[in-house]
Amino acid sequence: MSTLAAPETTTLRFPPGFWWGAATAAYQIEGSVDADGRTPSIWDTFAATPGAVAGGDTGAHAADHYRRWPGDVALMRSLGLGAYRFSVAWPRVRAAGGGLNARGLDFYDRLVDALCAAGIRPVATLYHWDLPQELEDRGGWRHRDTAACFAEYAAAAGARLGDRVQLWNTLNEPWCSAFLGYGAGVHAPGGASYADALRATHHLLLAHGLAAQALRRAHPAARVGVAVNAGTVRPVTASAADRDAARRIDGLLNRLFLDPLLRAAYPADVQADTAPWTDWSFVRDGDLATIAQPLDALGVNYYQPDLVGAGAGPERPYPTGGTVAFHPVPGPVTGMGWPVDPTGLTDMLVRITRDYGPLPLFVTENGAAYPDAVDGGRVADPERVDYLHRHLAAAHAAIGRGVDLRGYFVWSLLDNFEWAFGYAQRFGLVHVDYATQRRTAKDSARWYREVIAANGVPRP
User: What residues bind substrate, as annotated (predicted)?
Assistant: First the structure.
């Protein structure tokens, strides 16, 4: 395992005040899905559907964070984390039938207080995919009213927690919510309509804008951002057809979200590409101005690039009519088979700064799953150490190219319920034995603690 005792000239130092953090999501770690007034979410329903999640797993117990949070905060402190990105579970905060569930808000109030006492900045995400099932039954993100309900929820969370939360993410990865949840059927709620996915995209973005306004009304000093799963899309060759295929996927993955958020407009080429599925009549006057609320920061979740070309390809998750082929990215892969290519992170951070202006950026998720196991009380995970090392060097390279990068959050603090993969994939810095809920810091956690202490990484 590497150390940071290298000479100054061989260490990549990050800017003073850089936020070193780790991230989690409520449904993935909390468990206690029916405790203290929490109502069902779309993920409770989806996970209970036979065949929807690997191994038939659900988030009913997860990492039991709802009951074990004091120990988890102590664990964060022992790792030297300066920030913790967590999500508030909307079904905990919304009471059955509507209104507020005070016990749900109380939980996050205690958590935020404990983080502050430990010297850890609270970074709160309001929506990490766990829509209350009652709202899905009324149309979910297909329905415009869900955005208004989200703003009411944001106002309540902001009024209760806004004096201590250092940064809000309204949404996490709205592309996943819309395209995997409503278009491809592989995430909750399991829909399979591209018309619904595109409608959900707009209503999610509208919810972001309304929530940003609500948070700032509740607490004028609120710092508001949103986290997108931005991915560098490259053509497999320089041919015009392959470059057009890359344009189409980049439009659906990146520009469909970044343009309305940062330019108050949907890309004309994406609207034309998606004409077989929708006429975009759900966009009303004033919506785009609402969506494009000023951002205090943009969160970038990065895992892998895409290599695409013209040709027969999968029908889902992108609405392309199966006319875009996805090619293997050369190089190593993670335990999930995802390509390891840190240059995609540098390129994406630089591209956002170049195309949309020098706004503050955070890497709000970055990490890798490997088949970790406890051996003699230790979890050796050299692949994850190498992955994080290389991606932090890539983030540093982006700073050197003029990117205003303010912080980095490892996904994830804990092994957890990894959505449709269930418990089969482990992303955590900390190993969780799901039978006993025992936590074991992996070698990568100790390595990251050294990184934080040094505010830098050895030059690869």
Answer: 28, 128, 172, 303, 411, 418-419
